[in-house]
Structure formats: structure tokens, C-alpha cells
Design goal:
Blueprint lengths: L2 H7 L6 H22 L13 H23 L10 H21 L1 H15 L5 H22 L8 H4 L3
Helix pairs in contact: 2-3, 4-5, 5-6
């Protein structure tokens, strides 16, 4: 029976992927809750350092239950098919940034990530997006270095401004 016929008959099958996401959310909620129980301190105040981790754990467990109920009912809309090319461009950009960050510096590595992400979203002119990404990243590096006094990895381009 096709999906359309199942929907018309009101017999949608449980969504296994959404159910797995619900289980993962539940496990994450339990891990956060267990970690929060290991925290100490703040006995002098009613709201201590464990209040927010417990709230996050509770929210994750509620979202996990809600996701699993909706998955069991089959109420999630049909998902689009993933396109591999844009995903590969973004993952490749992230890998390039991670590999080049300390060798080439923040601006060049992050500029390449910017260009790869722009390519994933349909901007095919790498000759234009790479310099734009490097200049924007250099501006971000300058804000962190000059105003915030935080040190991001510096390469040959950043060395011109140190």
C-alpha cells in the first residue's frame, strides 16, 4: 500500500526515524540529569548551580516523550529527499577549516568554510565568495583580537595586523 493510500485510509505507520530521535533525546535528557545530580554547591540559595541542568534535562525528557508519541502516531510530515552535493560541500568546508585553522589562520580557514557553505546554497562563483569570506573572517578576527582581547588562531594574513 503506498503512503498516499495509507494516509487516505488513516493508517499511517509509525515513523522509525522520528522514534529513534525521541530515544536519543531521552538518553540525552537522562545523561544531563545524571550529570546535574553530581554537581554540588549552592546550598545557601534555593536556586543553585543544578537548577538549570535539571530544567534542561526535564525539557529534553518531555520533548523525547512528545517526539515518540508523535512518531508512534505517524503524525510527522513526509520528509524531503536529502541532496548529497550541498551536504558534501558543507562537510568539506568544515573539514578544510579544521585542517587549516592552525596552519593558515582563522581568516583563511573560515573564509574557505564560508565559500563552501555559499556553494552549498547555490552560489557557484568561488572566485568571488572565497575573498569575501576571508575578508569577513578577518573582520571577525579583528573584533576578537582588538576589542575583546581574545586570541583566535593567527596565520600569515593575521600576522600583518599584529
Amino acid at each position: 500500500m503506498t503512503d498516499l493510500r495509507q494516509e487516505q485510509a488513516g493508517q499511517r505507520r509509525p515513523d522509525r526515524a522520528a522514534f529513534a530521535i525521541g530515544i536519543a533525546l531521552g538518553v540525552l535528557g537522562l545523561v544531563v540529569g545524571i550529570d546535574a545530580s553530581q554537581l554540588s554547591g549552592g546550598a545557601y540559595a534555593q536556586i543553585g548551580p543544578t537548577a538549570f541542568p535539571y530544567a534542561i534535562a526535564a525539557a529534553l525528557l518531555v520533548l523525547a516523550a512528545w517526539t515518540m508519541v508523535e512518531a508512534w502516531r505517524g503524525d510527522f510530515p513526509a520528509r524531503d529527499v536529502d541532496k548529497i552535493d550541498p551536504i558534501a560541500w558543507i562537510v568539506g568546508g568544515l573539514a578544510a577549516q579544521a585542517l587549516l585553522l592552525h596552519a593558515a589562520g582563522f581568516s583563511i580557514a573560515t573564509g574557505l568554510l564560508f565559500a563552501a557553505t555559499a556553494r552549498a546554497f547555490g552560489k557557484r562563483q568561488l572566485w568571488k565568495t572565497i575573498p569575501i569570506g576571508i575578508l569577513l573572517s578577518l573582520a571577525v578576527w579583528g573584533v576578537f583580537f582588538g576589542l575583546l582581547r581574545l586570541r583566535l588562531p593567527a596565520g600569515p594574513l593575521e600576522s600583518l595586523f599584529i
